[in-house]
Amino acid sequence: MPSKIEKYIVSPEKLVDRIRHLSARDWWKIALVAFGGIVFFLLFMWIYVQVLGLDLPKTAILKRGNADWRARVERLSAHMAHQEELLSLLEVRDDKIYRSVYGLDEIPPEVRLSGLGGENRYEALRGTSLEAVVRRQDVVEKRAYVQSKSFDDIMVLQFSAGDMAAHIPAIPPISTDRNTYHMSSPFGYRSDPILGYTKRHTGMDFACPPGNPIYATGDGIVVKVAHERTGYGNHVEIDHGFGYKTRYAHMSEIYVEMGQSLKRGDCIGLTGKSGRITGPHLHYEILYRKDYVNPALYMDLDIPPKDYYELVRKPEGK
Description:
The structure is a single chain. Helix 2 (57-101) packs parallel to helix 4 (129-159). The chain is of the alpha+beta class. Strand 4 (188-191) and strand 5 (198-201) form a beta hairpin. The protein has six helices and 15 strands.
């Protein structure tokens, strides 16, 4: 085999005209031509990109694709903003009108805006423009779900709205016969009989001997039966729905149990002197949406005792 690289020259007349060896000079020429071609290509690309500001074909394709996705994300973002605005209007109307009418508490913002949770949900989108959009979409989905559940609750209450009047505490908790009680302390601020300083009195006190029957002032469910030596003493709490609860304190006997359904006028126990007290009386409270309200606004103490007894029912054997 030849020790040097051979050069073959081909002509139309002959298959091989002659053969000669490449010299060092030939190699230099080849190298210079190749180097010149590379330099020219690099110079061309520099002028194309840096001077003329043009994009390479692949870059141009990627930019067009990126611009298309950005436009889609912006359209999606604008659509979501419109949906968020409509959802906000529904939420305000729900809290301020619908839930208020039926005595339901407003839904806290942290519940409505909590999203779906879980940072791993967005790991694949970290640092992209889609991450913020997907997070917003999750929040909107959660808000829509919470709002849907709220409307379900309101719909259930609508079916029982006809019974709303029966649930609102609207009669005195004891007989209106003035010979059986006297009003020892109304609702509002007073000088506390035990502590001695001015303090808000959250209910009404009906001073009377132990043993007077106590009646549920509206339909509801017993949510608390407590036997305590201090504070309210023996007491009962009734949830009437529609945002109303009543509390009957310092009782001597309790006739009802936790979870028991009651009708207005059912006897729930007897007056007494249990708990923190200076004398026997019934302490009666009404709470509307967790705030104390004046019970005097919900009852007529001037109703004749005969008419009052037609509204209430003494349990057998009591």
